[in-house]
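Hello K.,

You asked for the raw outputs rather than the summary table, so here they are, unedited. I folded two proteins back to back in the same session to keep the settings identical. This is the first:
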Amino acid sequence: NLLTVPGDPLAGFLLASAAASAAGLSAAPTDAAWARAGVAVAAALLIYLHGLIGNDLFDRKEDERERPERPLPAGLITPRAATTLCLLTAAAGIALSWLNGWASFGTALLLTATVLLYNGVMKRFRILGPLFMGACRALSLAMGAVAAGWRGEGSSPTLAAIGFLGLYVAAVTAVAQNETRA
């Protein structure tokens, strides 16, 4: 799923830019704005990678039973190395988001906290788990919108997209909860 992540912040950036342009609040994105979009995409990818590694760390015992071929149970990477990489990718994503300002930094912090809560606790809950996963992807879309300068103005299309993506991913996650059951 890592390769699906760039679409979230990029879509948020384009939606917020189009909404601001339609509302007469800004013109078409400049080169600097596109650079901010690139930063948002890179930060979202790093935070998502943090989530993937964190998921494997939190699920080590389960993976030893059900997916022994995965890198941690198979001994291809040590838990210490995985933990270090998990922390470094989170820190890099958050630090990179800082280049886009306070709002992006705050969004990245919220996304990272939501990923951590999902992996550590919430995915074990039948309803909260999918909602938190949906929130992760919705916040990824919001990172792009914030990179475009979105702060709620012209918000209907952007908020609708954030909400729709969050609910869609929550629904897919709810269906996928049963993937390892007979």
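The second followed immediately with the same parameters:
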Amino acid sequence: MKRFNIYPIESVDELAHPEFSNSITLDSPALSVMTDFKYHEPLVAGSSDRAADIEQSMLRSHVRMKLVVNDQHQFVGIVSLDDLNAQEMLKRVTKGMSRDDLSAADFMRHKNTLRALDYHELRQATVRDLVQTLKDNEHQHYLVVDRKEHKIRGVISASDLARKLHLDININSRSSFVNVYSALHPEPALH
């Protein structure tokens, strides 16, 4: 086993910073705000996983959405923290379902109800184009598909977009693309 020397740091007083700018602007490429699954492992839940366990996992990891896969690891839908809230669970329990038996499949939004952005179109777009396209959208996430390869390539999150643009949006509230657009285009105050 290799041993390392341990050095004092009293003479060090500066921080290192990236040599490149990672600042995102409205004129940045739209792909710069996408979480690309070719580089970042997608966060998934099994369709039969217990809903309460998924909710706790999402809260612990500060994640608001997971992709749902079946037993063959095929994409079947998404589940968000909002889908798993106590009120939604209570609705099902009052219908006679056991809280312990509730699974991702009971709460997920099926893939046939979802809409996505095209990866190759995003390659030609800016963040401004993306914000303008999604300005009326109440969703928190948009999947990005590579239609040529028939794969989900990534996800764009409204809260990630707001953070990367340094927008003043409460991250503890439900951030949507409408919130992002509103923060970028505040309405003038009426006098």
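Residues 56 and 62 are 10 Å apart (CA to CA).

Happy to rerun anything if the numbers look odd on your end.

Regards,
P.
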